[in-house]
TrEMBL record:
UniProt KW keywords: Membrane, Transmembrane, Transmembrane helix
Organism superkingdom: Bacteria
A Pfam family hit: OmpA
Positions of the OmpA-like domain: 58-166
Stored InterPro entries: OmpA-like, OmpA-like_sf
Cited Gene3D superfamilies: OmpA-like domain
Full protein name: OmpA-like domain-containing protein
GO CC annotations on file: membrane
PROSITE patterns assigned: OMPA_2
Protein's organism: Parazoarcus communis
Residue stretches spanning the membrane: 12-32
Length: 166
């Protein structure tokens, strides 16, 4: 008689724990979903040689870039024409006070990957500094981790920083 009650109790306990596990998974899923919809971006921080911290946002790129800034091979200094080209971005940020600007630096696969990533990061930092100098608050400028530009025959596409307002 007790064996039958123990078996029934085990079934009830198993079902109860299963329901609790489903509720916990549902709550965690809701939290992750609401975080991604609210625009909150999980970030990673990386220290650079200059002691300055670079914060990378893990946020999805939305739409086409508003601006592409192209660089010469091995050069990280912002081209002079890029500062003038940022005017539409600044106008869009002024019009949409809730919008953020997302910077994505690209590099190709030739050479050392860590050197290429550092160059792409420094190019994006140059664009970021230009935006900050133009009066854009730092919390509105997000950076993505440098990305390898795959394929394509245009080498310039591998040496660019994309600027998106989203």
């Amino acid at each position: 008689m007790f064996d039958q009650e123990d078996g029934e109790l085990n079934v009830v306990m198993g079902v109860l724990f299963g329901v609790i596990a489903l509720v916990i998974a549902f709550v965690i899923g809701l939290g992750v979903h609401s975080m991604s919809r609210s625009g909150a971006a999980p970030t990673t921080v990386e220290a650079s040689e200059g002691g300055m911290e670079v914060i990378y946002a893990e946020v999805e790129e939305i739409g086409e870039p508003m601006l592409k800034v192209y660089f010469e091979s091995g050069v990280t200094d912002l081209p002079a024409e890029a500062i003038e080209a940022l005017a539409p971005v600044l106008g869009e940020l002024e019009a949409r006070t809730d919008a953020l600007v997302l910077l994505s630096g690209f590099h190709d696969e030739t050479g050392a990957a860590d050197v290429n990533a550092e160059v792409a990061k420094n190019r994006a930092l140059g664009v970021r500094e230009a935006l900050l100098a133009a009066g854009v608050p730092a919390e509105r400028v997000l950076m993505r981790r440098p990305t390898v530009a795959l394929g394509g025959s245009d080498a310039d596409e591998a040496r660019r920083v994309e600027v998106r307002v989203q």
